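queue> holo job accepted (zinc ion)
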Amino acid sequence: MRRTTRQQLQEVPQPVGSPTVAFEAPAWFEWLDSAGKNGAVLAFVSILMGAATSRSAISKQLRVRSTTVSAWVSAMVKAQLVTELPSKPGGRGRPMGQLIANPNRLAVAVLMVHSQALHMVTVNLLGQEIWHDSAAVDPNCDNAAMRATLQALQQEACAQLPQGTSLVGISYSLSGLINVGDANWVFAARWPGIKNLKLADLPAPAGRAMHVVRNMDAQLRARCIRRGAAGASERTLMLHWGYGIGAAFSASNGASINNTTGFGEVGHWQLSHQTLRCRCGHHGCLETVAALWAIGPQLLGANFDDAMDETQAAELLRVMPLTEHPAFNLALQEVVLAACNLCRVFFPSHLVITGPFIENPGAWAAFTDAFAKRGILVDLPLPRLEAQSSGHQLEQEGASAPLLMGGLLQLLNETAM
Ligand SMILES: [Zn+2]
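queue> job finished
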């Protein structure tokens, strides 16, 4: 197992032709809205986000009686989520001082796949990374080797927790075919040797929750949550065109329609006129002519590295004359065709394209042009087309927020008992 420690996971490349998504703290109020309101948790989030920093401010903001706020603050202080500074040190009476949130009280470890490497990131209640390590995994590894790598990262995440921080659980945000319901990593094109790796068999740390999500679903959910009410009503189709190719779809509030056996493996759609062998073992898959793993060597030459992160690939691709390259133009045609066909199945209100290729301004212009020319059906309006920049912030938020929110609810419920 080759180890690399990378500190800069939170890259913020400039989006191409898309509305800016604020890559800051997680959208906690919106996550709370989607989880259902809980007064004490809402009060904590208000303090955490700096919206209310005193008892009176909480009372005013949430329109609750001071006795209710008092009970909430007691629970938060007892749970070590909040410190209350006395306004008059040594003074008489109940202190009415500033409330300071402890963002490191709870954390979630998020396991993410970036090209040929596994990254384990420990995220606190502000969405900040408090620890991060990675391990490159041999492309020919089998289940046992992958399991050993996962276990080592998991153990290290637990060992490196700051004092006073409780780990709520581990969230596995994975690429490839995942049976989320069974916590089964069925297949990953990056590691063809792993098959049906049961994540539930990993010796999870006692008392910690395990969460499994497709990385595209985590990203899509966080994106919709961040759009607030507008995101809740949108039918969003996300198509990732990168190292691999995949899709995710949500018809309501970012909740993906995939929750059991798998979804969106459009990278392995068969093209009738292609015979190239794919990493999945079949021949003629879309990925064989359009994925970064397949055309990266032609486009980037010696600069291509199978283990490179998509954000690194985006940096290289952004300044190239991509649309002058025959391999890219063939890939573009096939991906646009796949996007249009997906739209005929899901009829999204908007289509979000992610991945390194569309960070190239010329490539994005060619994509939007080809998409508009193909159309969907009769004179139906086209979905709104958006490009989303590469990066892992949304995935990290979508993978960690549900566990952090659950941990927060549980901690406050237990403390209030
Ligand atoms: Zn395939």
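queue> The first helix runs from residue 28 to 35.
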